[in-house]
Amino acid sequence: MNKDPIRCQFVTYIRALLNHGLTLTFLQSIKQGNDWNYLHALSDIDKLNIERKEKLKASVKWVERFVEMLHFYSSCACCEAEKCGLSCQACGTRTVEKVVQLFANEGYDYETLEPEEMRYTGSGSPMPAVEYLVCQTCAKLSLTYHKLHHMRYILFQKCEDRIETVCSNNSDLSSEQVVETCMRSSKWINSIASEYMEIWRKIELDDF
After folding, report:
1. 149-177: average pLDDT
2. Which PANTHER family match (predicted)?
3. Separation of CA 110 from chain center
4. What residues are paired with 134 via a beta bridge?
5. First to last CA, the chain
6. Which residues contact 102 (CB under 8 A, 6 or more apart)?
7. What pLDDT, in 10s, does the model give residues 96-113?
């Protein structure tokens, strides 16, 4: 096993989300029970993720509304834009090359991941989806920023998908056995961990 402390904590983070995917109360219960092992991993990984997210944000000059929308919508996609000669709607300086699409089916509480009614506190009523015409640089960085901001939710969705796959093949497993089966899939865990750790590493090295 890789003894990198960050990777080890990330694996514990994934285990917590797998347990939460089966109970939908696990994150609340470890907080109420003051489970140091899980809480320490959740806190440290979230702290590292926020630090990298804020460093990335500090490197760009996005209009406030664009940042608000990246926070508000939990899903994000990107596609090519038609040549139009317009200025980027995020930074206002470079020429449009991409379309960033933001959408969501529901809101969520970051701490507990409980579904919430989508509520927007800014001006104007939110749409089910929005599009921004952006430059190449802002497209790349906004996708990364969105992935960091919604990390816990995105990872939870991956865990739910994995649980569904395991349960569909082994319907008689207990909750504990489902978690352990998921955790034994080193390829799956490593792919998730490596994705985020590579993002954090590149931001730390200003390679983004």
Report:
1. 96
2. COILED-COIL DOMAIN-CONTAINING PROTEIN 82, PHORBOL-ESTER_DAG-TYPE DOMAIN-CONTAINING PROTEIN
3. 10
4. 98
5. 29
6. 69, 70, 72, 73, 75, 76, 129, 130, 131, 132, 146
7. 999 999 998 788 999 999
Distance separating alpha carbons of residues 38 and 27, to the nearest angstrom: 9
**Whether 37 contacts 61, CB under 8 Å:** no
> Average of pLDDT values for 133-156?
98
Contact 61, 88 (CB under 8 A): no
Q: How far apart are CA 208 and CA 205, in angstroms?
A: 8
| E strand or H helix that includes residue 131 | strand 129-134
What is the residue extent of each domain of the chain? 5-204
How many residues are given for the chain? 208
Quote the CA–CA distance of 28 and 113 in Å, as a whole number. Answer: 10
* Nearest partner of 84 among 154, 26, 29, 133, judged by Cα: 133
